What we know:
This protein is mainly beta. It has 6 helices and 28 strands. It has a single domain (26-342), classed as TolB, C-terminal domain (Neuraminidase).
Amino acid sequence: MARANQAASLLLAVVLALLLPASFCAAEPIKTTPTLWSFHLPLPDGVAGAESLAFDRKGQGPYAGVSDGRVLKWGGSGLGWTTFAHSANYRKIPLCTASVVPAEATESICGRPLGLQFYAKTGDLYIADAYLGLMKVGPEGGEAEVLATQADGAPFRFVNGLDVDQATGDVYFTDSSATYPRRFNTEIMMNADATGRLLRYDARTKQVTVLKDGLPYPNGVAVSADRTHVVVAHTVPSQAFRYWLKGPKAGQYDLFADLPGYPDNVRRDARGGYWVALNQEKARLDATAAPVKHLVGVRLDADGVEHEELTAAKGVTLSDVAEKDDQLWLGSVELDFVGLVRY
């Protein structure tokens, strides 16, 4: 009888192994990639906060929006950082270039570029400026044009994340709050503000459509590799959602992933998934115990399953993780350099 039971158990195990997906049989270990030894590209004196990074259609860059309202371009160790784009006010108002007061006090006038992305077909760079709205500059750079400052009669208060559909040129972006501007982003979290919006700028009609409103702190945006949906990171409550553009779920907004920290930008990786930068880890129930490792980013697959995590020294936070040519480029709204990790 015992032998019969053993044989039956073995047969059942074989059948289950054949029928069940591999994910049910053995969970893939999560890879840990430390950023402690990343190479640093110092930003010019007096500026910080490379919140978002982008590369042009020639692969040049990175381009980074910084605290004084400019978008800078990295030209290699010989050329360093140069000014690529700026708002109209940056050249007109001396306070924007004087560096006599903190950037936080002038960013509402000089601009604060956050999300960046190129449209490869035209070479245009789209800019989500927290205060000035959705902007665009041509492939040669210069003064950026303001494309939109409101949608459905409601002005933007905190334009934040951005991505471009490379097939159509449409721009998907977030307005993180209808109540608080970027300078008061802490109040969004403290007051559980849920007035954010996901928007689309139609490249053909030049009109902005509200895809979803009533959102809690929507931040980074990424168009999926198959263009069926966009992934939106919500800084609070540490989650990512999908807005479906096509198929039977078109128009639906559903949970994509629970995240181990407060997310900022979302970027497609080289495998059909996403890199999510983390500004801070989630608050733990046991606040007295030091975390085993300090997470600053995670890589999710196309189904929202975590496969990799990035760690850093205590106190380091990331706003963007951009993968290019087997390298990870790291941006942070708080640091005065851009990081590079050989991947």
